Amino acid sequence: MDRPDERLKTLLHQESNALVQAILQLALAHGFTDQTSSMRAAWAEAVERINESLSTWLTHARPRQLDGRNDYRADPRFERLREIAWRHYEAGVPLELHHGLFTLCRQAYRQHLRQIPQHPDADTLLGVLDDFFDEATQAMLAPWAMRPPGEAALAESIRRLTRERDQYFGVLESLSGPVFITTEEGRLQHANDAALQSFLGLSEAGALRYRLALQHHRDTLQAVVDDILAAGRQELHAIWLDTHAGRRCFDIRLRPLEDIASKLDRCLIILMNDVTGHQRAIERARQAEHTMSMFLAAMSHEIRGPLHSVLGAAELLRDASLAEAESLLDLLGLSAGALNATLENVLSFSRFRHQAPQPRPTAVPLRKMLADLVRTQDVQARLQGVPLQLQLSAELPEQVMLDRSLVQQVLGNLVRNALRHDDGQGVTLGVQIEGSELVFIVTDHGPGLPPDIQAQLTRPASAASTPLPDPVDNSHSSGLGLLIVRRMTQALGGRLQLPANANGASIEVRLPLVLPEIATPDADSPVHPPEAPLLDQSCLLLDDDPIGALGTIAMLERLVRSVDHATSLTQASALLQTQPDVYDFFIVDTRLPDGSGLDFARQVRQDPRMVGKPVLLLSANTEQVRQQPEAGTLFAALLEKPLDATALAQAIRRHAGPPPSSPDKEDTLSIANGLWLDTPTRRLHIDGRIETLSPAETRLLVCLAAAIGKPCDRTRISEAICGRDWVYGDRTVDVLVSRLRRRLRGSVARIVTVHGLGYTLTVG
């Protein structure tokens, strides 16, 4: 089947005479015959040329569509039609007459094709015909479009300049920041779309709407330009301006238009960059720096007082008599306690500024805790000449569930503050029960609390999650201790009240009263007399601070059999390499010259010779270490400096000592005939053969022997050996079991693996 374009050529050739007649009728009807040839041959030639050009157009390789880049004045497809156009042009035929006649030809062709009955693809043929006449019209205008060479060059230059201008303004509009162009005197000429969006909240697409928006709001934008230029014409500056989104800060750069030949109107380009976030960050940093400076100044004042007392008492002790030494030692203890309290307040303020403390309640002997608290504050009270009294209600229970550390900090801060401001009549710490609340009352005879401090202390509990305010501006000492009192009290589930007191200040701390289900012995009671060694064990201390290490060594020498000291990981590694079985446990600091306490703990855990030997961290940076995910598996305990001898002894006994034995039982653990363990010496007797067990192996055997024939899970074994819960992937228990199995070879006892649970000790 023929294509539509082939059918169109055939059809037009057949209909040439009819087309000539149709064109003549249209020309006559529209008044064109008076100005054209009356000879039919001229009209027939026109139809012939149209058909020839259509045939060439249909067979040519170029796309059949209008193309603004095509030069229709030289397009070979329309050469025959252009000859007629040039003939008309040279004969003086006006452009409108020539174009009108060609338009009539187009109408005649379309009408004639529509009148052909039942012709297939009529719509397709009409579409092809319209495409041809669209391009042919461009070619027929060529003679009238031709210009002298000078005029053509000028037109091309104008078009090029227009493109360059549009390109520059396109760059201006594409900038994300506002841009203004003004005269040299500051009168607004132009503003980009970003300026409309920033200062007017408008986004105008399209040149016409954009220019209309600019004209309607020119006065508003002129005011913005005036504010910018009024701030000065420096090379670089930042100013705050009112925008549609509120106050914003902009970095301003002013650029005069570059025109060395003075051919253009002088103007100024204002480039703006929104730096609000950066500027606010700078302001916050400056405020934080100022706050920190004030904070350090206040803390320096708080610390220098007790430090002066420490240095003075230490100097006087050199030549003091025995009677004077006791008083000076009391002063040293008081000053050291004050320094420690101040440091604890600083650390608490840092921790609690953006996160509330998490209480850990335990069963606490209430009367003993309060008596100890008053005893520690009594030295300061006696030196200041202020009586300090403890008033306890008779209905107080023996034990309550409290977080001892948090409660002591709360009451200690309140008592120290009351002693500081009392006029000498005395401070009272009273404790009573009111309904379901345990009420602590601290009363003094001072000037009372300023209104701003009262407002902060009685802030509702819902504000506990808000950051602590800046304490350095308070006139009531540093204000730091009282702010921490409020935060800790709210964390404990309690509240503060300020009863009226005409003679001073009274502060009530009201906490929920919770009783323990079963009374427990006081964990703080000393288990062993301080003058006797706590353990028959050896310790390696790893600490690079020579002064701090002297104090720790002095305490350890009273608690264990022997102590060695290393100042670096290298020294500690050398000691472990040469004497792997000498040390029963390790105490390490966090920061070391060639690593950290974490590095040493990892080394111990990876050494099979060190399995079961606990590592205790003694550092002033325990909070930082506690955030490490592996801290719980690497360290048996995290001990925070400063630590006294009693607390250190309790920690070692709990985490590094052998399992406690009941005083009413013998020191011999009998497992089977011919198999028994001497627990003090850790000697295992196996049918006359003796194996000396490590402390960890001893604890493992005692744990398994407590339930012979019954399975022991890994968690229970880990608690007995290391004092911590077993976690998946911890191989400590498995390695110790393997070592104890080798020790038990040749005996009647065997350690059997219970898959998925733990181990069982069997006999026989």
From TrEMBL:
Domain OmpR/PhoB-type per the UniProt entry, residue ranges: 666-763
Entry's Gene Ontology cellular component terms: plasma membrane
Protein's name in the database: histidine kinase
Residue spans binding DNA: 666-763
GO annotation (BP), single: regulation of DNA-templated transcription
Record key words, sorted: DNA-binding, Kinase, Phosphoprotein, Transferase
Listed Pfam families: HATPase_c, HisKA, PAS, Response_reg, Trans_reg_C
Catalytic activity of the protein: ATP + protein L-histidine = ADP + protein N-phospho-L-histidine
E.C. number: 2.7.13.3
